[in-house]
Write a structure and sequence with these properties.
Length: 272
Amino acid sequence: MNIGFIGTGNMGTILIEAFLDSGAVKEEELIITNRTLAKAFDIQKTHPGITVARDAPETVKQAAIIFLCVKPLEMVPLLQQLAPYWTDEHCLVSITSPITVEQLEAVVPCQVVRAIPSITNRALSGSILVTFGSRCSASCRQTINDLLRRIASPICIDEAITRVASDISSCGPAFFSYLLQRFIDAATAKTAITKEQATMLATDMIIGLGELLKRNLYTLPTLQEKVCVKGGITGEGIAVLEQRLDGVFEAVLAKTHEKFKEDVKKVRQQFP
């Protein structure tokens, strides 16, 4: 079964590379295109078995499952361009969070899925947030779940939690890498440790933390209990974090939801 990708920016490329690395898809099964074709040809240089289609309609003609990896405000013009080419047998997979499956189903005749990826999927890890449209057949759901399961943990979500779920799974890596970088910067600014040493230690620490959680050896609360000896050094550091971080993540979520509402409003104006 051929799989098409319209849009080979950051997330489109991450998904393509992840599917190939996992063995979920063969190069010969991929049809890709991009508004700037040079970007698609750059991927083909590394994976010569991939077919680069000249445009989006050609991609839809050649593939059964189509991943639309474009920005929210580019979606409606793209769908208008593709209107003559969809069939009932196609499965459209959108990775764009502000656009609902209901909005997509209103303008295309095919089966619709929304799958919001994370950069962690590039390491065949993390979650991918899935919402199936009402027209998705049982076989389509099974095919998409089987495909996504090769690169991540597919998590079915309701529309109501789309933004916060995306904040955790998709934005979370950026948020916590920023905090980790600030931790490293503070260590190098205040002590004799080099940036290289601090980065290596912090990287090993975060990977080890992930392994502890992955293997269910500890929960987040029990990890803190095990490391924080009463009256010890770690406890003093935690006390500072409790004071300084109070309300920080509430403010972060408020800001992401505010921006999401703006995007949803702009998108809604484009849809009939």
